[in-house]
Amino acid sequence: MEEPIDVHVASDVTDEDASLIKPNANQNSTIAVPKVPGLISARYTLAILSFLGLMNIYAMRVNLSVALVAMVNTTLTNHSSVCPTANMSHTPKNGEFNWDESTQGQILGSFFYGYVFTQIPGGLLADRYGAKLIFGLGVLCTAVLTLATPFAARAGYQYLIALRVLEGVGEGVTYPAMHSLWGHWAPPLERSRLVTITYSGSHMGTVLAMPISGLLSELNFLDGWPLAFYVFGTSALIWFVLWMLLVHDKPSKHPRISDVERIYIESSIGDKDGVYSVPWWSMMTSTPVWALVITFFCSTWGFYTLLTNLPTYLKVVLGFDLSQSGFLAAVPYLALWCVMITSGHIADFLISHQIFSTTTTRKIFTALGLTLPGTFLVFTSYVGCDHTIAMTLLTLSVTSSGLNGSGISVNHLDIAPKYAGLLMGISNMVGSIPGFLGPVVAGVLTEDMETFQRWSVIFWISFGTYLLGTMVYVCLGSAEKQPWAMDSQESSAITHQDINPSVQNDAGIINA
């Protein structure tokens, strides 16, 4: 790692930027957030393109949840909705596939069978060889397979399941790769906002995919539902070209980054070149790592339950037609996107102004991001057919989960920025298990009996996992950089801290 640099760019720091500088009483210097020449900084260009990349990824992931409602012939099942239909004048199209609830659950969950297996390889490859290409190829693979989805479905549901497994393989590398990329690009005092901007793209993809897929599926052109796959697959191909042209693995490799920004980033987190080795034993016996992994599993159970089943719940239980359910299913994720962006700025403010420590901030946002969604979700199944209250509670449940963006979602970068991609791969691998278990459990519980009582069981299971995750993370979680993730220079400085009062600031830099 390069020698840490204390950056003082007083002439380039605006009043707004200066508000981010919070001197530590024990420090002899501070790190300023510099004003970068040009229209937009390299790190925020990365944030925007990352946002668009994850937007495409999630659009290709969730479009099947909506399109499947149009693909299946519901006249062959006992599926009059529990509640009176919200639009009696609309006659929905009958799909061409005779798939029961169990088969639909297998199709929806099959994506995660592939997704779970490439998380750790994705993190290792990105950390070792560079995240730009790994992330880009993951999206490209998913785009090509998305375009082929209609052909696979018409060949048989077994082929569709196989294709979705392969899509999961492609997408499985994306989140670990993105975390690895931010390990090189995200200064600690901007970490929450940059990462939440990026990962909020997944929810914007959901916001766009659900209503657009619903509208496209209702068209007569090309039978409607295949358009949901053609449109989003093509969009991802266009994004891939821009990504490969404009993004670079590290500030030191970026040909257009200003010297001011490069020095600021590298002095905050270091230019992490050198021999790459993984301290597997230390990592696997680390309490903060286990707390993060367990909490990830608990948080994704409820999230994936809604992500894959919400369109079906809105249509089959609450009685909304396909075009309505697509729009209504998107509303909670639009609100979630707003909360996620806002919470990132709030979290960075709390940390940079030393109102709370980084660990306390992560625990507050994680606790709220788990307990609130679970509570609102349980209430949903007890309001009956009151569409307004039901949609309000569902929206609040999904929206409040966005607080996790400033909690566990960024915690990997806190405890081990050098291994952030690998840690995200491990936690997301475990967190992907609910992706294929959730739809199967929902399909079994609601087989030929879509009732509020059956859905109440599904929602209570989600509440229980949310509560477990909250207790584990509050008791065992941490945002302190772990000893096994430190460079020798950092470890040496901390070892001699009592003799020579050098301290480590929030950015992980030792100031002597």
Primary descriptors:
single chain; 512 residues; mainly alpha; two-stranded antiparallel ribbon; 20 helices; disordered N terminus
Structural notes for this entry:
The chain has 20 helices and two strands. With 512 residues, the protein is mainly α. The chain has a two-stranded antiparallel sheet with strand order 1-2. Helix 9 (191-217) runs antiparallel to helix 10 (227-246). The model is unreliable at 1-31 and 494-512 (pLDDT under 50).
Give a quick rundown of the structure.
The protein has 512 residues and is mainly alpha-helical. The protein has 20 helices and two strands.
Largest sheet, strands/sense/barrel: 2 strands, antiparallel
How many strands in all?
Answer: 2
Content-based structural category: mainly alpha
Average of per-residue pLDDT values: 77
What is the element layout, followed by pairings?
Layout: H1 15-18, H2 42-71, H3 101-115, H4 119-129, H5 131-147, H6 149-155, H7 157-171, H8 174-185, H9 191-217, H10 227-246, H11 259-269, H12 280-284, H13 287-317, H14 322-352, H15 358-380, H16 387-400, H17 408-415, H18 420-445, H19 452-476, H20 488-495, E1 503-504, E2 510-511
Antiparallel strand pairs: 1-2
